[in-house]
Amino acid sequence: MNNHHRDTLRKIFGHASSGNIEWREVLSLLEAVGTTEREANGKLKVTIGSETEVIQPPRGKDVDEQLLVDVRRMLSGAGLAPTSD
To answer: Would you kindly state where each structural domain of the chain is located, as residue ranges?
Structure first.
């Protein structure tokens, strides 16, 4: 994970809502910590550790609240919650 990925991780766990977290940043993080595979229906299959989930990418540039919750859960389950500095 590079500094941009760590910043995105902090944004994901630091915001109550998704207001300014861009999908491209989240996708880059997911690709860095796991594997991603586009499905024919436009959804994204994400595997982090032993967990796999199929998510619907947002239509706009920012992630929505439910996607943020799902991504937080996957990252936490893989032990990727940010540490306190």
So the answer is: 3-77
